[in-house]
Amino acid sequence: MIPPPLIALAFIIGLATLLVAWSIMRDRTRYLARFQPLRHPGVSAEYLAGLSNFLEKLHDRRTNSAWPRRHDALSVLMFCLRTRAFSLGPSKPAARLIAEHLTLWAQLELLKPFIQQAILGERQRIAVSAILELPDTPERDRLMHFVNDIRQYRDGFARALSPSECRLYHELERTHYLLTLRKIHAVFDEHGYALLPALDDLQMWETLPPTDLAAYVNAVCLPSLPVPNSSGLLPLGARTSRG
User: Fold this and answer.
1) What is the 3-state secondary structure (H, E, C) of the chain?
2) So what's the pLDDT on residue 73?
3) Region 31-51: what's the mean pLDDT?
4) pLDDT recorded at residue 35
């Protein structure tokens, strides 16, 4: 018969092992470290081709998010178990598409400051186009003030980057990473999900007349310019009300 002290010791060791494993699996930093450094961020053409089918199956199962709950190994494991039975066609096995889907999810988290910069750059471009269409009015002055604020902020952000971050910044611009995200966002939207709600706002900017854009900038955008290393973008992959 096993002595009770040995049973108690084995129980304590087993419980401690489980707690350590749980802590590791719930460690956000450890999980995201698997995807660093980000040398060539982006997605493949195969992922873009299979994404609509994948999101349709998620939607059919009434899944509230296109992503795991959290950036940790346990949440990812649960997500993979929920999606492993998906049949996505012979040209793109489910495991490969899900792996790239999770890589994109990690990229969106790790690249938040850079994505924010790209969105600010698009807002700056739209505002400059509106300035060229406006006469010398208070609305034009507001837009010019907004453009100057964004230009100063983006210049300061670029100066604060390390050499490796600067190379990544230029790589994202060279590969038109934001344009890729906008394509993915459109597919998400078709199925009732939102990749980056900030991209919906950017689309609205592109449709506003110059005078309305000036009023919108004055009321909303100037007081809430993002700061470097902010966690600032809106929640990723959430279901929208259309879903």
Assistant:
1) CCCHHHHHHHHHHHHHHHHHHHHHHCCHHHHHHCCCCCCCCCCCHHHHHHHHHHHHHHHHCCCCECCCCCCCHHHHHHHHHHHCCCCCCCCCCHHHHHHHHHHHHHHHHHCHHHHHHHHHHHHHHHHHHHHHHCCCCHHHHHHHHHHHHHHHHHHHHHHCCCHHHHHHHHHHHHCCHHHHHHHHHHHHHHCCEECCHHHHHHHHHHHCCHHHHHHHHHHHHHHHCCCCCCCCCCCCCEECCCC
2) 85
3) 83
4) 81
